[in-house]
């Protein structure tokens, strides 16, 4: 039973992300176009807080570099320029459930 709770609770898990969306780049095509990264996710229904809205929040984040093929339009040409490039993507190593209302209140206090 504990293993099932751990599997479905707030833990880093694999998510497929689009490189164009993640890097906010519209001037290039990447191959592969999607990569797996660790991001917080899971069931927030197991929240121990006495609030209605919990969210899974990263507590430890690392940047990892992935080598991908980048294709870009050459200036003044109809041909594509190919290059291998390293892209840094955020991977969540640890996560915790946080009451969303507490997070909003904390953000208001910081301003």
Automatic annotation (TrEMBL):
The keyword Ion transport does not apply. Keywords: Developmental protein, Glycoprotein, Growth factor, Mitogen, Signal. The keyword Aminoacyl-tRNA synthetase does not apply. Residues 1-92 form the Platelet-derived growth factor (PDGF) family profile domain. PROSITE patterns: PDGF_2 (PS50278). PANTHER family: PLATELET-DERIVED GROWTH FACTOR (PTHR11633), PLATELET-DERIVED GROWTH FACTOR C (PTHR11633:SF5). Belongs to the PDGF/VEGF growth factor family. This is Platelet-derived growth factor (PDGF) family profile domain-containing protein. It comes from Staurois parvus.
């Amino acid at each position: 039973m504990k293993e099932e709770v751990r599997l479905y609770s707030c833990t880093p898990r694999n998510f497929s992300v689009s490189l164009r969306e993640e890097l906010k780049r519209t001037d290039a095509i990447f191959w592969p176009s999607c990569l797996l990264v660790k991001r917080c996710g899971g069931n927030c229904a197991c929240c121990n807080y006495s609030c209605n809205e919990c969210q899974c929040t990263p507590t430890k984040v690392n940047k990892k570099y992935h080598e991908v093929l980048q294709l870009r339009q050459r200036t003044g040409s109809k041909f594509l320029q190919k290059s291998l490039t390293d892209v840094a993507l955020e991977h969540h190593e640890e996560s915790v459930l946080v009451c969303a209302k507490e997070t909003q209140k904390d953000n208001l206090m910081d301003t």
